[in-house]
Amino acid sequence: MNDFILPIPEAIDLYEEGDLNGLDITQLGEYLEINTHIPFHIRGDIYKRFSKRRIEEASKEFARIRLRDPGKRFVSGPPSQAEVDYEKRRISDPGWKSFGILYEGVLYQKVISDLVIKGGLDPKHCILLFTNQLFGTWDRDDSRYHARVSLYGFPSLISLTGLVEAPAKPKEFYLKKQMGTPVAWLKEEYQGKFLDHGDLRTTEVLKGYAMQGLFFHLTGDPFCEDRDCRLFNSHWQEEVLHSQLDGRYDFCPRHDSILNQLRGRDR
Amino acid sequence: MGGQENMAEKKRIFTPVSEKEITRAIVDSFARQFIEYVESDCLIIGGGPSGLMAGRDIASKGVKTLIVERNNYIGGGFWIGGYLMNKVTVREPGQKILEELGIPYEKAVKGLYVADGPHACSKLIAAACDAGVKFANMTIFDDVVLREGNRVCGAVVNWTPVNALPREITCVDPVALESKFVVDSTGHDACVVKKLEERGILKTTGFGAMWVEQSEDLVVEHTGEAHPGLIVTGMAVATTYGLPRMGPTFGAMLLSGRKGAQVILQKMNPVVRPR
User: Fold this and answer.
1) What average pLDDT score do residues A193-217 get?
2) Domain boundaries, chain A
3) Which CATH architecture has domain A11-264?
4) pTM of the model
């Protein structure tokens, strides 16, 4: 198992943030366990075990890391009390539905990490957080923030909103939208060609992203260049749908071999 | 002769009243109202849909409410939908407010309803008036009144046309109105919030790009007290917190106004006067 840089985790911890409409997290966990023989635990709402004081602190942090202008580098500044109050209401409500604020992704990951990872990195647990909030990271190529589906690390963050909003829809969709075609009409015209909020395909698609999170934990590399592999780093909705639903296989021969090794370890 | 004069009087529709009596009636009534409302419980800057909704809900609980509007007409953008077409849309659950106000509407697609702009706007204005809201139209916001701790407790106003005249010939001082709460319902301009920003008390971001599906939720969720004494509603919320803008749909304006009213009523609870 030379590809692994960390010990195989004892468990995969699945956390939730906000209303995850469309995700069957149990089904996703079972998929991970079947493919890796690593047991999963559904930990539920990520904030439920914390004190009011910790929630207050986290609220201030979330309010502080809002991206005011995605075209400029993030600059920290004091948030308003109303923004802090909004964040407190948001993270205190497990069923929170509203999204649309874009947060600085790396700092968002740090806030979550400070909450759930105490006393240093614990390689025995692979932690995945599924969220309905939107985060972005800075792209050096075009010098602006872009919304992301996922941010792999400790923990890994996977955004259902990012899954819909980040990978690009067909080019024609945007051209027609620019020319004034209502979005509702475009969604009808291009139905099925991209994922939408509450899409019935969400769970199936997110299985691949969860596996990316696990591969990051194990090998430091979540991605594959094979566009038929679930670990393909998709930038378009078309690529997401192909690699997660319509590829020749679930995993390419190389990654399938790694999974075989994982499954074979307890024989 | 006398018979002919009687015939002439019988043909009059209106009771004879002199010009000076008409003038005195206007001045007297206006002055009494203005004197009374120099001090109010709630001063709403902006007579658009969110300001009207807030005013209607607040005043219906017996709270003394004045709306200041810079235009001659009340209603802001609620008369017209997008692109000068006079149909206004609301997304569910905004249609419940249309029902409450007696505004007829029709369903466009699932979750989207359309009403006539003139009908919707006039019904909302009437509802605010019926609830007891008073108006100072053709009146422009000029500055905030601040007290200890920079708490907002009023607004400085002037006649709107004064702004159009050259400063050199119009040293026309404004006047101050005091209030327990001020509501910024001035739309994209967020005039009251911007005035606080000029003074270095608040910082705004400016509304983001259009994202109709999410912006309405975010505007309603962020509606509330932006600074002690200042509640922000409607599109001014988007400007204050850098939220996406929503385009030609009005559900969030109505619900944001309602939420702003709820915030004020909660804070005022001990002070509400019975009607």
Assistant:
1) 96
2) 11-264
3) 3-Layer(aba) Sandwich (3.40)
4) 0.84
